[in-house]
Design a protein that fits this description.
single chain, 151 residues
Length: 151
């Protein structure tokens, strides 16, 4: 069973960083695929939306790199998923990228004792984490606030 040792982590700050660019948010662009895949895998669609929001408003710099290690909208790490049959080209298709991200969220949720948004998001970002990270705390805040509705 995966573990995130403690929900409490005084260094896990969920506040909005200065580099978070709301304008880069791709939640609505991919909403149909998010809802479809979250439903198919029985994963909370708001968690998926929060991850997509986080990754597209924080990971926009990957668009500038000629061959980034990760692929948006869920910032799926290409080399981590090669063993599951998804190539870089596959993951560049948003619906497949979302399927891969939702699959990872599902697997993490099934392996965490008492899963929370912050714990699952922390492990989504770093599978070896032992405490909730700033990433997990920020995704929790995004999940609660649903900023993708702010136009």
């Amino acid at each position: 069973m995966a573990r995130v040792a403690s929900e409490a982590n005084s260094e896990a700050n969920g506040s909005k960083p200065i580099y978070e660019l709301h304008e880069m948010n791709e939640v609505f662009e991919h909403a149909v695929d998010i809802l479809k895949e979250a439903s198919a895998q029985d994963v909370d669609h708001r968690l998926v939306m929060a991850i997509v929001y986080m990754e597209t408003t924080h990971g926009y710099y990957d668009r500038l790199h000629p061959r980034p290690k990760t692929v948006l909208p869920m910032n799926v790490h290409v080399s981590y998923w090669s063993g599951f049959g998804w190539s870089r080209e596959d993951l560049q298709v948003p619906a497949t990228n979302i399927r891969a991200g939702v699959t990872l969220l599902k697997r993490i949720s099934e392996r965490v004792k008492y899963p929370t948004v912050a714990k699952v998001a922390t492990l989504y970002n770093n599978l070896s984490a032992e405490q909730v990270s700033g990433y997990g705390a920020r995704v929790q805040k995004i999940y609660e606030e649903e900023p993708w509705w702010d136009l």
